[in-house]
């Protein structure tokens, strides 16, 4: 059986794609090239279906949530707050898995940030 090798892309609708791309670059340091190609650091990726009624993603209209691995969650959240981003006050810790925080991008998409254990 053929199997997928990994995440090949994440595509997101935006009212202003250039501005949203700049936000991801300037606030999260996601330095994709002009074609959207981003060389990410190796590490685990979680694929987890959630119940349809979950509020974990924020807005009920948001069908998926992007999760980024980060080295230092506290430093990333502070950086985002300094840039005026909408950062959730709550931080969660899961034994053996790591710590989680959330930010909402300018288009209203909730993003999870994960510092692995």
From TrEMBL:
Record Pfam families = Glyoxalase_6
* Domain VOC residues, every copy: 6-116
InterPro entries named among the record's database cross-references? Anthracycline_SecMetBiosynth, Glyas_Bleomycin-R_OHBP_Dase, Glyoxalase_6, VOC_core
Q: Signal peptide position in this chain?
A: none
Spell out where the chain crosses the membrane. none
Q: Which PANTHER family match?
A: GLYOXALASE, GLYOXALASE-RELATED
Q: What is this protein called?
A: VOC family protein
What organism does the UniProt record list as the source? Amycolatopsis rhabdoformis
